[in-house]
Amino acid sequence: MVKPENNCIVIFGASGDLTHRKLIPAFYHLFANGLLSEKFAILGVSRTHYSDAEFQEKLKISLTANEKVDQQMLTEFLERVHYQPIDTSDVDDYGKLKARLDDIEQVYETGGNTTFYLATPPSLYSVIPTSLAAHGLNTEDNGWKRLIVEKPFGYDLATAEQLDKTLHNAFQEHQIYRIDHYLGKETVQNLLVFRFANGMFEPLWNRNFIDYVEITAAEFLGVEERGGYYDGAGAVRDMFQNHLLQVLAMVGMEPPAVINADSMRNEVVKVLNSLQPLTEEKLKNNLVLGQYTESDVRGAHLKGYRQENGVADDSRTETYVGLKMFIDNWRWNGVPFYVRTGKRLPTRVTEVVIHFQKTPHPVFGANAPENKLIIRIQPDEGIQMSFGLKEPGAGFKAKEVSMDFHYDTLEETQMLTAYERLLLDSMKGDATLFARTDAVKACWEFVQPILEYKENPEHLYGYAAGTWGPKEADELLNDEDRSWRFPCKNLADTDYCEL
Ligand code: BG6
């Protein structure tokens, strides 16, 4: 594998949760697997005063607490980690950062190649890039400069446009990498390979053969310690506007001529721009919002959303969203996409289910088997195709059977986590799996009417924690003789769900 050039990654928000939980472990694994450049430095930045040694010690504790690490490898990794305290809201303080980067450039021969990672609260998303630009840290005369931005990219359409403007005042689009960690998942990328590397599926992948599509991202966990953030966001902003619409775009897009950042993202944005706008009437008929309530399930007592830490006790924030939506183009006209996501559902599962049309005439009786293709994104990643087979014995009764592929049957390969893959790509300058500005805007444009609709407290249903969401969501499909797939009806006391 080609390694990135020598570079330095500056992490703003270095003492925060994201840095400790996701970023540093991802860099450590990339380093341990020999995937980083020979000369590679990390510079943690935040307000708290630490020396390099103190910061390294903190990282050491969090890395060793969560996994088994090779001590020698860890020491070598931590030697490359440095720390610079600055007041990120004070533009003058960025002079210290610039001086520190000059030193790092000398020692690590980075040639000035630098990535700035915004792992901070979104309130700093405009102030940091603007201050970097004030010190010339955005210009590429001396090595490349990139900016990685974590979601949320705005709070609604207007704030997203405002944020975009601020980012573009300081950095050019080719320098901005917007992380949607769903795009870093192997199985999401596999949607493209599955569709475009096989001649047999693409001819069927359209309105002539597909009856409907389901996209589900279910989580068993509730909001855990993130109640404060989540209560201001809700499932529509947290999962639907970004991750689910990106997955939908991968299912719905046209084949790109080549796989590169421009060509791929051109196709993604075409789908997003073809989403049928949500009118008042469509919202009323096709959208279900829900919030989990306390319940006893599988012998455990689960708190209701309003009892979670950081959540208002009269909160009307949705923890579930189910939507029937359409893509208005030649390929998909009239094919409903049922998309749902929720917290405190019976299990953790993310999957896409393609339901093919029934045979025109039921020769073998009314209960004809379904032809469906399940693309399991997580867990037990894999693909399952179901079809009808003659039930052995007298007569001609058809029975539904399936052919399965599970990723874990592949021989030992180096599977990168989503963050590892995306960090590596950004260091190599490959933006294919990052959200482009026009795609983010198209998602907000589509979602904006939902944000307004959900302001009305009457538009929220309850569902018992540990169940599949409000019963009203089932009715989105029932009327049409369709149903959601419930991947795990009879769960044991585990939140693991096999394909
Ligand atoms: C994050 C959301 O973006 O995605 C979380 O903020 C959610 O609320 C998470 O739990 C789900 O990601 P994954 O990879 O576990 O499906």
UniProtKB/TrEMBL annotation:
For this protein, the record's Gene3D superfamilies field holds:
Dihydrodipicolinate Reductase, domain 2, NAD(P)-binding Rossmann-like Domain
EC number(s) recorded for this UniProt protein: 1.1.1.49
UniProt-annotated catalytic positions:
243
Q: Could you say which residues bind NADP(+) here?
A: 47, 151
Biological processes, Gene Ontology terms? glucose metabolic process; pentose-phosphate shunt, oxidative branch
Q: Which residues form the Glucose-6-phosphate dehydrogenase C-terminal domain?
A: 192-485
What does the record give as its pathway?
Answer: Carbohydrate degradation; pentose phosphate pathway; D-ribulose 5-phosphate from D-glucose 6-phosphate (oxidative stage): step 1/3
TM region(s), chain numbering: none
An annotated Gene Ontology molecular function = NADP binding
Pfam families, per this entry?
G6PD_C, G6PD_N
Keywords from the named record: Carbohydrate metabolism, Glucose metabolism, NADP, Oxidoreductase
Recorded catalytic activity of this chain's protein: D-glucose 6-phosphate + NADP(+) = 6-phospho-D-glucono-1,5-lactone + NADPH + H(+)
**Residues of the Glucose-6-phosphate dehydrogenase NAD-binding domain:** 10-190
Q: What are the record's GO terms for cellular component? A: cytosol
- The entry marks the following residues as binding substrate, namely 181, 185, 219, 238, 343
The entry's function note states:
Catalyzes the oxidation of glucose 6-phosphate to 6-phosphogluconolactone.
The record ties this protein, via NCBIfam families, to: zwf (TIGR00871)
- Family of the protein in this entry: Belongs to the glucose-6-phosphate dehydrogenase family.
List the protein's name: Glucose-6-phosphate 1-dehydrogenase
